[in-house]
Design brief:
Blueprint (H helix, E strand, L loop, with lengths): L3 H12 L13 H11 L3 E5 L4 H15 L7 E5 L5 H7 L3 E3 L2 H22 L1
Parallel strand pairs: 1-2, 2-3
Helix pairs in contact: 1-5, 2-3
């Protein structure tokens, strides 16, 4: 298991002002579901180096759906084997193979959410 890409993304996200809860590598679906219930994040990030990780990403997103949490979060996936087709297959909102680009996507989501909040006030 490799966590280099995850760690790079985490460090860049933290430097950009995001609070990051790093669950580590090779975590079960339940770990994500419980953490989302606990902290109510805006964004969930999943990373994989090998194609084996892609089904685990799908299972995690499906687990969030089953728990009634999927509509509460945006999901971004990253890693070498991801692309638009994979993104659609696993049910993520966005994908990237570049940590800096991933942080920009997340920043855009936060700005969108802030804008939507300001419109409803």
């Amino acid at each position: 298991m490799h966590d280099i890409g995850k760690n790079i993304f985490r460090n860049m996200a933290e430097a950009a002002g995001f609070q990051v809860y790093d669950l580590g590598i090779d975590q079960p679906v339940e770990a994500f579901v419980e953490k989302v219930k606990e902290v109510h994040p805006d964004i969930v990030g999943l990373s994989g180096v090998l194609t084996l990780a892609l089904e685990a990403m799908k299972e995690t997103i499906d687990g969030l759906k089953e728990a009634g949490l999927r509509d509460e979060v945006k999901v971004i996936i990253g890693g070498n084997p991801v692309n638009q087709e994979v993104c659609e297959h696993v049910g993520a909102d966005a994908w990237t193979t570049n940590a800096a680009e991933g942080v920009k996507i997340c920043q855009g989501w936060v700005k969108e959410k802030e804008y939507e909040k300001s419109k409803s006030n």
